[in-house]
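Note to self: keep these together.
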Amino acid sequence: MIRTMADDDLPPDADALYGAPFEDFIAERGALAKRLRAAGDRGAAKRVTALRKPSVAAWTLNQLVRSRARDIAAFAQAADGLRDAQAALLEGRGSPAGLREARAAERAAVDRLLEVARGLFPGGREPGATTLERVAATLHAAAADEAVRDAVLSGRLLAEREPSGFGDLEVALPEAPPAAAALPGEEEEEEEEDDDDAAAERERAQAAERERQERIAALQAALDEAVAERERAEEALAAARAEEERRRAALEEAE
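Structure:
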């Protein structure tokens, strides 16, 4: 389940909570609930009080969506291009080169958003490596999965996500054409020339099968590359989390 702020039966002001500075979320939420209680809407006040604070990575993504419309639009366009390239390859209309080009464009759009994210924190603070890794992972997940993308683009994301390969993309490969039926009396006349129409049909079937096998091989190569890329991302994320734990332990020891 993708976690965002539920907007059913919530006052319009509740949306602004997810655009507020990260450290002000609790205070702003309490102030809004107080105003609602003073106005006599205790039900809305209770729902606002129950709203969860987003993770740091989710907050970062929410700010990007709310303040960098052009960069987010470029990312969404690149994500569409990647999904189109994946679908085209699966359907036999695309090529591995086209998929590589689309993936490079998606990575460039993500890198641009990460660059912008470094300037979102108050006081010139740099977001931690773990935060940036989680932001990148969520953006890659959004590129592959429409439901994740909708959650990110809502600007009310509560928690980060991790990529899952090709997401919810489901395109069936065409079945191989049926082989040409044997001609009557073919066993007895196998040394004679085949009927021209039957021979042409067999050639077309063989050519279609070769094309299908080539398409499957190209798709397998693309999938292998996607799996390898995800493994590299997971290794980087694990390293960043370990570094964060080491820093936290060092701070606790210093105290």
